């Protein structure tokens, strides 16, 4: 079995969940399962999407939030079985696919404009 056949086999075995489409600048909430001993609970992580990276089973996204005046970033793989759901809270307007410049900004400067939609009549 050569490499392309092996990649197709692995992708077919790992079923990707369907999540809503989002991009950098959007504010999302990721609900994921945490296992502590023999107990499980769902914890949410809400923040701004900094980047989307990769393709297929290696696709990941990075989320940043401010927790007690400290910036916290977390990288989530799309194909992780621990992700329960992803909710989009706000759609943001940014001109870049990777908004790492947000790391240097504080307070009001770190705000992202919200994307507005026209009402269809």
Describe the fold and architecture.
The chain is mainly β. Helices cover 9% and strands 44% of the residues. It has 1 helix and 7 strands; from the N terminus they run αβββββββ. The protein has one helix at residues 3-13; strands at 27-36, 39-53, 60-67, 70-77, 83-90, 92-93, 113-114. β1 and β2 (39-53) form a beta hairpin.
- What's the total helix number? 1
Helix content: under 10%
Which spans of ≥5 residues are poorly predicted at pLDDT below 50? Answer: none
- Secondary-structure element order, as H and E? HEEEEEEE
Number of strands: 7
Strand content: 35-45%
Shape: globular
**What's the quaternary structure here?**
single chain
User: What's the alpha carbon Rg, rounded to whole Å?
Assistant: 17 Å
Biggest β-sheet strands, sense, barrel: 5 strands, antiparallel
- What number is the mean pLDDT? 86
**Sheet with the most strands: spatial strand order:** 4-3-2-1-5
What would you say about this model in short?
The protein has 121 residues and is mainly beta. It contains one helix and seven strands; from the N terminus they run H-E-E-E-E-E-E-E. It has one helix spanning 3-13; strands at residues 27-36, 39-53, 60-67, 70-77, 83-90, 92-93, 113-114.
């Amino acid at each position: 079995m050569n490499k392309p056949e092996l990649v197709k086999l692995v992708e077919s075995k790992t079923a990707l969940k369907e999540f809503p489409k989002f991009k950098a600048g959007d504010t999302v909430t990721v609900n994921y399962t945490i296992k502590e001993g023999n107990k499980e609970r769902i914890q949410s992580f809400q923040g701004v999407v900094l980047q989307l990276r990769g393709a297929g089973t290696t696709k990941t996204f990075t989320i940043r939030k401010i927790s007690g005046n400290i910036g916290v970033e977390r990288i989530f793989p799309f194909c992780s079985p621990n992700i329960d759901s992803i909710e989009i809270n706000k759609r943001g307007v940014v001109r870049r696919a990777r908004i790492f410049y947000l790391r240097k900004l504080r307070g009001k400067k770190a705000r992202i404009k919200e994307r507005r939609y026209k009402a269809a009549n």
